[in-house]
Amino acid sequence: MNGGSGGGRMAELEVMFDGSSLTKQRSVESVSSSVFDKLTDELLIETLIRLPIKPANLCKCVSIRFRSLISTSYFVRCYLNHHQINNSFALYYQSKPTFHNMIRPSLMGIDIAFGFPIFESPGFSLSFLASSDSEQQNQETFQYLASNNGLVLCCAAMRRPIVYFVCNPLTKQWISLPPPPSNVKTVYTGFICNPQYSCNDDRKTSFKVVRIEVVKCESPRQLSGTLKLEIFCSILGKWAEEYFMSSSNLDHELFYGWNYRCPSAVVCDGLLHWDTLSNCGIFTYDPYNGECRTIELPREIRKPLWALKYCLGESAGCLRYANFSWDDTNYRVWELKNGGESEWLLLHEVHLDEMKSTVETINKDCMGLLSPHPLDQDVVFFWCRSSCRIVEYNMRNKILKLPCFLRDMKIISLLSPMFFPFVLPCWPTTVPLIKQHDLS
């Protein structure tokens, strides 16, 4: 944990979410027992499901009985049915270019767009990661790297050694990870989380962080036949190193140079997928079986040199690849089929002139692909460089429009902006406790 204040936060979280400190719980329990013990479990559940999601989750610290009821899958189902909650999402981006995509934690809330009020209160922020030292806090910056199942991976890249954090920006839970084996900053990163919502199961929420060092050389032929992966497992509480032996130059070319568009992996079907500037394909890693392979792109795809004209993403559990062809000025969207066995299905093809816009300031010639919509399989997000706006395109009606978000998304950048869809799970994901290490 980061500093003395971090230790205090961790102790508080242990009370609120893990129930490891029963002393404080019992003191609260003694006050509330006379009132709530008179209610049956059914009446208590009917009462608690009417609370907003964060207060309902925090009620776990009221008593052992509250924690037991709220942690059951039955309570979660009742809560979702009562509130008619579907997975909501937000888009984190950077409205202005910064050095190495650094952000100040207190300003993170400015660069998030959403259509769901839950992101307004208590707010989507990383300010709780800042140092307790006021002078350092004003200078501290972070990199937002990835998110999965409600948790976020970020790092304080300016520290030595590099410090990674895994946090829940809505519940304000966080942990710091021990330093990685190497202090290389330029890496491809992957983050995957398996949430566990019931305390009646022996399993706990777990996650893995994967780092792949970028090898700089004059040509792919100079690369060795081995890729080094550094992997942190929350269950083991430490980093491990794995080596992937390549049988061809295809995998080598994937990590030739550096692609600022995709330092983080796309998570789909329990696998990590990295796209690159290469024409070869998509590098895929299974973090649970330790297997690596390359998924070739469709033969019809030739990646444009301009990075704004293609993107890789996940939509409703499917891996998708979208690109723009300069030859015929068509946008195409592909989906990977058959469990990732390199079979791609062309879902959509549209000529630039066929795209109808409801926004006068949108110049279709200045649009760049950002990401598929994480929940709506008909929608793809674009960024219009001329108007500095994020727009969405519906593949069914071929209409371009501004997303229905609660705030305007204006991005001033010469390059394609950093863009991260954040999908909020139906129930808050708890950040698991790991063995703490000395970060000094």
TrEMBL record:
Residues in domain F-box protein At3g26010-like beta-propeller? 134-400
Query: Per UniProt, what is one Pfam family of this protein?
Result: b-prop_At3g26010-like
InterPro entries, alphabetized: At3g26010-like, Beta-prop_At3g26010-like, F-box-like_dom_sf
Task: State the protein's name.
Answer: F-box protein At3g26010-like beta-propeller domain-containing protein
- In its UniProt entry, the species of origin is given as Lactuca sativa
